[in-house]
Amino acid sequence: MKCELCQQNEATVHFKQIVDSVAKELFVCAACAAKNGFEIESPTSLTDFLFGMGVQGDVKPPAGDKTCPACGLRREDFDKRSRLGCPTCYETFEEELRPYLEGTHAGTRHAGKVPATEQVSEEIAALREALDKAVARQDFEEAAALRDKVRALQGAAAPDREPA
Asked: Is residue 164 domain-resident?
């Protein structure tokens, strides 16, 4: 099969893209692939692709190998396993992971389900913040109502404890 770009050389590289359930395929020669920025001499690992290094000209990893202070995972280890070791790895490798996460998800902040205890904690924190603002405005009626809501939630979170 001939290259679909130059129509001269034999096609040796196959690209497949699926957009909105529609597959598009492109068969090109090695020269046209390289001319368009794709490194085909060495296979691109999934990890390199996730970190944005599969295409020439993209951001290269910073000099020196980062290591997670909590679990000791090195960038090199992640390249081999394609798995992070602990929650601290997300912070350690944030610079490399951010472009991938922004591109594949609707943002970089978790918006899915949250365990019930965590959900109550977040609600209490939001109520306390609103309580502080009400006190600062000297709106003591609203502050009292917010205080009561915080106490009720704290009581529901720990039913065997007396509310403070």
From this structure: no
Q: Render pLDDT for 26-69 as a digit per residue (tens, 0 to 9).
A: 888 888 877 776 666 555 554 555 555 444 444 444 445 788 99
d(CA 26, CA 2): 11
Give the pair of three-digit tokens for residue 96: 């490399």
Number of domains present in the structure of the chain: 3
* 46-47-49-52 Cα dihedral, nearest 10 degrees: 170
- Angle made by CA atoms 81, 83, 88, in degrees to the nearest 5: 130
Q: Same domain, yes or no, for 85 and 67?
A: yes
Sign of the C-alpha dihedral, residues 70, 71, 76, 78? Answer: negative
**Contact of 3 with 28, CB cutoff 8 Å:** yes
Give the domain extent around 3.
Answer: 1-41
Q: How far apart are CA 97 and CA 75, in angstroms?
A: 11
CA distances to 16, 46, 67, 86 from 70, rounded to whole Å, are: 39, 24, 9, 8
